[in-house]
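Hi R.,

As promised, here are both runs. First protein below:
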Amino acid sequence: MAEIDGSKRVSMKLFRHLGLSLSEQAHKSKGQAIVLVAFLFIALIAFTGLVVDVASVLTRYSQLRRALDAAGIQAANQFREARPLYDISGGDLFSAVKQIMAVQGFSQPETRIRIFACNDPGASILSSRDNSSPAPPDDAEYDEGDLEKQLCMEPPRKLVRVDAHSDVGLPFLSVIGWRYVTLKVTSVGEAASIDLALVLDRSASMARDTCHDVACLAACPTAKNCYPFEDVRTNAKLLVQRLKFPYDHVAIIQFDRTAQIFDTATDSFVENPDAIEPTMMINDRATALNVLDDFFSIQTGGGSITGMEPDTTFTSGLLQTNIGGGIRTATRALTVQGRRRASVWMTVFLTDGAPNATDMVIEDFPGGFCPPTAWPDPSDTPVITITGYFDHQGLPPYAKPLCTNIRTGWPLERTCMLTDTLVSKCAPGTTRRWSLADPVSYAYHYDPDDYARDQADYMASNGIVAFVIGLGPLVTDAPNQVMTLPNDPSAPYRDPDAGERLLRYIADMGYDPGVKPAEMQWLCHSNWAWDASAKPKLDTSTATNPVNCGNYWYAATGAGLRRVFEEIASRMFTRLQQ
């Protein structure tokens, strides 16, 4: 019994010891769990704070990226207008970029900005104020060679690089001493280099506001008071001033009966050159302005085309508006010498009337195309002897000075012809009535309006943007009566606004040639053929406020040209490169 009691006492002591140990162990485990939970809570707070800081940085980076893209476009726009890159007095690219960044919420001192360009390729990119703004205090190391490779192109391109360093606060990490992170972003904006063909009417009618006789017309070029011609000269010079040379190039083309392009190699206008030379694309402002000042001139003579028109006391022939020839010369200049990387091909075309002449592109037609359907009755016109024109096959040798077919109802067919100078296609809605295989046939109706439309198709197929200007009443309301009998009030009229209809078509083709004819969605409501009569005419009642549709403008007088040329200049193309 004693032994048993002793065993019980030992067992009780053992159980009491084990119970005490388990209780102590439980208390210790609870303490460890509390510490572990505390660490987990701290880690969760740290992770949440880190996520918040990272999200803040990423959001701010996205905002900075968008702001700098906008600043890059603004810099390119200002660069196009020939503003200085940096000027301590303001009005420069650097100030414009800072303003854009401040509007977007990135202002100094948190955001530091630096911009670069290659205005002076011979100077240092980093130290020249023509090529770089001053470096901010924490500016990074730049490799000048890399900057030159990026910005100094040959041929020159209008590239502007904008760099921004912006400090973003870190609310959580600042607890441990990491107060902010600096974001660094770069954007390169480019204002598209322009290859421009400036095509201007110089026919004698461009002096109609000043002159009504031969003596006045002969004298006004020296006095430079041929109006509205001088208004054209003045505003063409303003447009050239808006270009940025040597990045932009311009070909200057004048036309009357023929189209002529200026060649700096000979300092002269060249008629129908065999080849378009690089010297016909002018790449400096002084030369372009000099051409417009001293070489661009109104037509004062030239005589009539034998067998096609009589002489008159004023114009020495009435067939003086070769619109198709001007477009053809511009297209050739741009497609041959305008093929520069990243450039935009554009033409600005101005005329004061409808077409009544064409190029002399076919041997059998040395006077151009003047279809017999445009010739009047012999009783209306004195006999004109045709010499070396082509075989009449017994038909009367008479031609109406306007050389255009009678179009008095709508829609009417447009005649299409194929030659080696035109696009090898006929537009929808046209009829091919004439071919080189039958050059003396009188079955065709091909006239100067058809020729101009063919050249507009040729221009558009080469991706050339066209800005078109109609000037004066001969565009919208020309006196085009067909006198089948002398002073017959019942005689039909050619379309008095044939000029405007054609110019709308040229503008539409130069705006978006891809619109299907059936959709009729061109901004100026033109079509492949003569069927726009249902569309409203432009309001031409205000002389000083031109009106426009798409890329076509009408100005009733030379006073309205200033606004037209300013609007065209404002439509320079800018894009973001990087």
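And here is the second one, sequence first, then its structure tokens:
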Amino acid sequence: MPEQTFIDPGNNRLTYRGESTKVFVTNWKNWGLEHQEKFVEKLRECARVEEAGSYAHGQNLSTILSAGWNEGMRLGDDFAPLSFTFELNGISGGIIFHGQHDNGGDGGAPTFSVNLTRTTGWLMHT
């Protein structure tokens, strides 16, 4: 259902894999069209990865985005593959996708994020 992933331009609210969320996209209206399109394509690629089930230990992005505690979360773009920044209740961090590309989160490129145990999937880092 990657095609059912989009941003409602009226309120900047994210719909992910056909599910409406309470997550907003930071500065969506200030981004240029090319940046907006790349961001939505990044989200759709995340949906394809979830559907393929090509991760095992981390959370899936759907769980993070649809959680009841995240109302008002603001999602932003991140430099790491399939990863995003977030802000919620004054706490900022990243929703980082880990896997073979970053050795499960060993602190190296391309995510530069560290996990205590190797992970494949999305984890929230603050």
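A quick note on the second one: The first helix runs from residue 33 to 52. Let me know what you think.

Best,
J.
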